[in-house]
Automatic annotation (TrEMBL):
It comes from Anthropogastromicrobium aceti. The keyword Hydrolase applies. Pathway: Glycan metabolism. This is non-reducing end alpha-L-arabinofuranosidase. The keyword Flavoprotein does not apply. SUPFAM superfamilies: (Trans)glycosidases, Glycosyl hydrolase domain. It is an enzyme of class 3 (hydrolase).
Length: 501
């Protein structure tokens, strides 16, 4: 019997809703077809955005959306995507599939999508192939309220009032596709570019995100922070509000990522092991950030994470389209638990990517749409948004064949805005159910409700069988004198809502 100890009186931090953020790139069928079909499409839409997809995303309360990339961001020239659509430049999307990008989805369309979703905006600027002036003017175009060349241009293009840009990324993966820079070089570029990312409205400041490391490149984190903090007042924190981190989970490594749906038990456990590596990455990059920012004013922004498998057979290799099984659900549940437990440092995370690419929550095929197992995990976890993280410890063991082992369970616990305690648990074992004693150090569990996502490890939804995997209510939990008693089924993600008296 494993024990889960919870101290309801000990608040460890605030869980930013942005931890459940998303990412949309001009990549494959994410923007075009997945989110945006244009006003004249036979697919029901509002101002070009698919109604079915927007509705499904609203159900999981998307807190923030990152756009336009990814690698696309450092080749994107925002002025190509404004003004009358028939005049917008066409270009080749060299990174992703070599297809024609007609720029019909640009700044105005992104802001309209976020308005419909009711989410915050995270724009990623171009450092790799763009100028300081171009970046500066984009910020002016979006946020300046008054008379200026860019504000006038925005009004001419039909939007009199400025928008709110909540987050602005100064480049993406500048160690790679964003310019192949050295950390000191990027640190210098960051200092210069960010200077002109102006805050035109002090009541609605733009939070600046610097490009952080790829996986375990601790030298990048150290040197970027060293460079950006040099000869800066301490309280400026390197002139940044956030530093990103990218880490994808692929069971066979970069060269041989493996199939999204056809995998062995060993590959299952290897995936769990590799995804759990996020815990170490957050801890170690966090320790470097602590040296420069002990007060934790700069957020760690894990703005690309999730499973990256081989593309579905027969699809464009540059479109990165993959299916999504119960394995993805576990990966999502584990990572969201890790982010919650590090919420003192992790302030945002954006799963890649929202629709039709990598670990998506939605897949579309023409006018059809399905919710993936990952969508259901976000559905289960949404009660953690804006909640207070509570102190909790779960007794775990390692599971899986020698060399491919991962912790058998993960958890996080919060006190929600609804005044209830929310417990999320994952069971990584494909063969064992685990009985758990939940022990509350104070208070008493007066009522409990559960929702679970569980199934055989390969199970997934298809356009012909869209509800193979879905949440159901969970009854195998009982109130006890000191807390709760439950059995966590194999291969599952569980959310318990507990009334504590
Ligand atoms: O998400 C796909 C790509 O992965 C992004 O464009 C890039 O930032 C990362 O390498």
């Amino acid at each position: 019997m494993a024990k889960l100890h919870i101290r309801p009186d000990v608040v460890k931090g605030h869980i930013n809703p942005e931890i459940q953020g998303h990412f949309s790139e001009h990549l494959g069928r994410c923007i075009y077809e997945g989110l945006y079909v244009g006003e004249n499409s036979p697919i029901p839409n509002t101002n070009g955005m698919r109604n079915d997809v927007v509705e499904a995303l609203k159900e999981i309360h998307i807190p923030v959306l990152r756009w336009p990339g990814g690698c696309f961001a450092d080749e994107y020239h925002w002025k190509d995507g404004i003004g009358p659509k028939e005049n917008r430049k066409k270009m080749i999307n060299t990174h992703w599939g070599g297809v024609v990008e007609d720029n019909s989805f640009g700044t105005h369309e992104f802001m309209e999508l976020c308005r419909q979703l009711g989410c915050k905006t995270y724009i990623n600027g171009n450092v790799g192939s763009g100028t300081v002036q171009e970046m500066s003017e984009w910020v002016e175009y979006m946020t300046f309220d008054g008379v200026s060349p860019m504000a006038d241009l925005r009004a001419k293009n039909g939007h009199e009032k400025p928008w709110k840009v909540d987050y602005f990324g100064v480049g993406n993966e500048n160690w790679g596709c964003g310019g192949n820079m050295l950390p000191e070089q990027y640190g210098m570029m960051y200092r210069r570019y960010q200077t002109y990312v102006r805050n035109y409205n002090n009541a609605a400041p733009v939070a600046k995100i610097a490009c952080g490391s790829n996986v375990d490149d601790y030298e990048w984190t150290e040197k970027v922070l060293e460079t950006t903090n040099r000869r800066m007042p301490k309280e400026a924190h390197g002139a940044m509000d956030g530093l990103s981190l990218h880490y994808y989970t692929h069971p066979g490594g970069w060269e041989n990522k493996g199939s999204a749906t056809d995998f062995t038990e060993t590959e299952w456990y290897e995936t769990m092991k590799r995804t759990y590596y996020m815990e170490e990455l957050v801890t170690r990059h966090g320790a470097i950030m602590d040296k420069y920012d002990p007060e934790k004013k700069v957020g760690m922004i894990v703005d690309e994470w999730g499973c990256w498998f081989d593309v579905e057979p027969g699809t464009n290799p540059g479109f990165l389209y993959q299916q999504n099984t119960m394995r993805d659900a576990l990966v999502a549940g584990i990572n969201l638990n890790i982010f919650n437990k590090h919420c003192d440092r992790v302030k945002m995370a954006n799963i890649a990517q929202m629709v039709n690419v990598l670990q998506s929550v939605i897949l579309t095929d023409g006018e059809r749409m399905i919710k993936t197992p990952t969508w259901f995990v976000f559905y289960l976890y949404q009660a953690h948004q804006d909640a207070e993280l509570l102190d909790s410890t779960l007794e775990t063991a390692m599971v899986g064949p020698e060399g491919h082992q991962a912790p058998n369970m993960t958890e996080s616990v919060s006190m929600g805005k609804d005044g209830k305690m929310h417990i999320t648990l994952t069971n990584e074992s494909v063969s064992e159910d685990y009985p758990i004693d939940v022990i509350l150090d104070s208070g008493k569990a007066a009522a409990v409700e559960g929702m679970i996502l569980t199934g055989e490890m390969h199970e997934h939804n298809t356009f012909d069988n869209p509800e193979q995997v879905k949440c159901t209510s969970f009854d195998d939990v009982k109130l006890a004198d000191d807390g709760l008693k439950l059995t966590l089924p194999k291969c599952s993600v569980l959310h318990l809502t507990v009334t504590v008296k």
